[in-house]
Write a structure and sequence with these properties.
alpha+beta, 3-stranded antiparallel sheet, 16% helix, globular
Length: 88
């Protein structure tokens, strides 16, 4: 039997990985990550809270996982459909 559920809003910290600010994004990361290129485009490999390696591509958002220094990527269309900028 199906029931109705609501997604609980939560506040997150995130930054978009775009070409114009890729160096600033890299400098703001803590924890385990690596950067390089895939198909000639810059990428960042981040370690998730589950110990998996996730690839962040240009245009993706990097979401900070609590205070632990872990991150996960979210595609731009998914991010914009789920979050709005708080206070500004």
């Amino acid at each position: 039997m199906f029931k109705t559920y609501q997604n609980t809003p939560k506040t997150i910290e995130a930054v978009q990985f775009i070409d114009e600010q890729k160096d600033k994004v890299l400098n703001s990361l803590n924890g385990q990550y690596a950067h390089g290129f895939k198909d000639g485009k810059p990428i960042i490999k981040v370690t998730t809270i589950y110990g998996d390696i996730a690839i962040v591509r240009l245009g993706d958002w990097i979401v900070k996982e609590a205070e632990l220094g872990f991150y996960y990527p979210v595609r731009d269309d998914v991010f914009r459909g789920s979050y709005v900028l708080k206070d500004g």
